[in-house]
């Protein structure tokens, strides 16, 4: 498919949408308040909106190879912080998929380049669950289980972040979910992780608290907060400094 075909598809899509609902784009242009945050694999066979039946405006999306939550990934952390603290998403889902090439590569020994370092995060998942992983004799079953274990660990990685820990102490904490998509039949499976207490059993190692009076001290933290007056003042400040 050439880029011209992409542009032609886009023109067709715009005219279809406008025909169905003339207000469609002007409504979306006003802003977003998505309920969901989707963290999925970059795999082209896992279209985030298609498999979840969500349209524009409903889901904030972050994708990377093998749907990893890495604590030094400024991209993921920024998406998470903005989604939770500014947009106020209610449900956060890590979505893995059976047949994941990244997961399969991490289970093997062949190098693919720079990406091998990224995949080390999945080798860490194997290390944590080594006994169970090695006990599964069938290779396909072993990889399917690794996909699930990887999702479970990434949900826990979310729970280890200061962002989620602070959000969990607010009045309306987000729920964390681990899902696996099957590219062979199109179905999403809920791993039924304990989304309200994702750190359960590990609090003594990972739980942290904001210092008293800090922005994220649970007694003062309100989650979503926007002060348009203050924002305007800051903008004016910047303009004055420039001139
Ligand atoms: Co994948």
Descriptive notes:
There is one protein chain. This protein is of the alpha/beta class and 243 residues long. The chain has one domain: 3-Layer(aba) Sandwich (Beta-carbonic Anhydrase, Chain A). The chain contains eleven helices and five strands, in the order ααβαβαβαααααββαα. The protein has helices at residues 3-20, 24-28, 48-52, 74-87, 101-107, 115-128, 130-135, 139-160, 162-167, 203-206, 228-242, and strands spanning 36-41, 59-64, 91-98, 175-182, 188-190. α5 crosses α6 (115-128). The chain starts with a helix and ends with a helix. The model has no long low-confidence stretch (mean pLDDT 91). The structure holds cobalt (II) ion. Cobalt (II) ion binds at residues 41, 43, 66, 97, 100-102.
How are the SSEs ordered, and which strands pair?
Elements (H helix, E strand, L loop, with lengths): L2 H18 L3 H5 L7 E6 L6 H5 L6 E6 L9 H14 L3 E8 L2 H7 L7 H14 L1 H6 L3 H22 L1 H6 L7 E8 L5 E3 L12 H4 L21 H15 L1
Helix pairs in contact: 5-6
